[in-house]
């Protein structure tokens, strides 16, 4: 078994155990394998081990990797999620090449993604990024403004609003991780509970990474984003 296949099995095992501990159905939590900084070869290895959904942070790197993987595996349906920050002049490649975007935190970005989504493709799936623990310089809409943004995005013709995403600051203790994740879950539930017609597919809470996936699953995450746990430690190119 390759290292990546073995890592995937371990991460899926952690997820299953966390679901059991939380009294949740393991099928209610998906795994997004975050392949940023790793090459198409690593993605192909993960695909061979059964993984189908991948997350990328850097748009050009992601677009190149999507093309390389598609060329190698033209018949395997994969899902590509953009989980990095998007400047408004970089929306077009995202709209043209990705299936999901987790990092929409202002209407202007959503409007551009909708306008630029090519007609033959299905609508782009959107999670609204929420700044759940409040640092003023952090990305994400403040929780009090999340519903308004969700509703506005739901009206855009080429987008479908799927839920919320958050990246809480790292906390070393499980209890502290859980407390912050529970705030994201409460906001998610308050919006789902409205059962508004435009929000029929509002079913995704993108929460939890390698270090805190157990707490995120305990809180109610439906999609954990795991990089290091699947692909190993990252080295970033020097700035
Ligand atoms: C890099 C990244 C991840 C994965 O982080 P790991 O700690 O390596 O699991 C998840 N979400 C986002 C938004 C990221 O940028």
Automatic annotation (TrEMBL):
Needed cofactors: pyridoxal 5'-phosphate
- Which of UniProt's keywords are assigned here? Pyridoxal phosphate
Pfam short name (any one) = Ala_racemase_N
General function of this protein: Pyridoxal 5'-phosphate (PLP)-binding protein, which is involved in PLP homeostasis.
Q: What is this protein called?
A: Pyridoxal phosphate homeostasis protein
> Which of the residues bear the PTM N6-(pyridoxal phosphate)lysine?
36
Homology family:
Belongs to the pyridoxal phosphate-binding protein YggS/PROSC family.
Keyword check for Nucleotide-binding, yes or no: no
Molecular functions per Gene Ontology: pyridoxal phosphate binding
Q: HAMAP family, per this entry?
A: PLP_homeostasis (MF_02087)
Q: Which CDD domains match?
A: PLPDE_III_Yggs_like (cd06824)
The record places domain Alanine racemase N-terminal at 28-234
Q: Which Gene3D superfamilies match?
A: Alanine racemase
